[in-house]
Amino acid sequence: MNEERYAHRVRQALNYGLKDIPPAASRRLEAARHLALAHQKQAAPQMAVAGFGSHVFRTGSHIPYLKQILAVLALLLGMWISFYWHSVQYVNALEEVDSALLTDDLPPDAFLDNDFFEWLVDDSSED
Q1: In the prediction, which pLDDT does 124 show?
Q2: CB of 76 within 8 A of CB of 68?
Q3: Which of 14, 52, 65, 107 has its CA 20 to 30 A from that of 90?
Q4: Quick one: pLDDT band at residue 16, thresholds 50, 70, 90?
Q5: Which residues have CB under 8 Å from 58's CB, separation 6+?
Q6: How does residue 83 score in pLDDT terms, banded at 50, 70 and 90?
Q7: Which phi and psi angles does 33 have, rounded to 5°?
Q8: Which residue ranges does UniProt annotate as crossing the membrane (predicted)?
Q9: d(CA 28, CA 35)
Q10: What is the largest CA-CA distance in the chain?
Q11: How many C-beta neighbours within 10 Å does residue 77 have?
């Protein structure tokens, strides 16, 4: 409260002495003020997402590292989508092989025979 009272008293003293400043000095002070305001850093505009919870996505948010957290979450989501996509492709490839084996002329019991398996291994090594 003392700082506010002190600032108020300083402002009153400056306003009181304002009428004693010569007009030329007043113009120079005004020009210097405009120049200082032009060089002053502009406050960054706060962007917000419309809708529920928009206070979380403002640039001046109270949550530290919000952008980094969102980037890591986006990366993890991308990795999960990639893993899911590749697993679906793998299952589809296995499905094609299984359906080709089941529609072949050989009975499924032939694939369980050890002699047939050895014949397949020997036959594939000759190619």
Answers
A1: 58
A2: no
A3: 107
A4: confident
A5: 46, 47, 48
A6: very high
A7: -65, -45
A8: 65-85
A9: 10
A10: 115
A11: 10
SS (H, E, C) 30-95: HHHHHHHHHHCCCCCCCCCCCCCCHHHHCCCCCCCCHHHHHHHHHHHHHHHHHHHHHHHHHHHHHH
**pTM score of the predicted model:** 0.35
Q: Which two tokens stand for residue 62?
A: 């109270």
Residue 73 has pLDDT above 90, yes or no: yes
Query: With 80 as the cut, is the pLDDT of residue 107 above it?
Result: no
State how far the Cα of 13 lies from the Cα of 15, in Å rounded to an integer: 5
CA atoms within 13 A on the CB side of 105: 0
For tokens 């600032």, name the residue: 7
The two three-digit tokens of residue 109, written as one number: 């019991």
Question: Measured between alpha carbons, how far apart are the two ends of the chain, in Å?
Answer: 93
* CB 13, CB 21: distance < 8 Å: no
What's at 37, amino acid-wise? Answer: L
> Which one-letter amino acid corresponds to residue 61?
S
Return all residues near 60 (Cβ < 8 A) that are at least 6 apart.
46
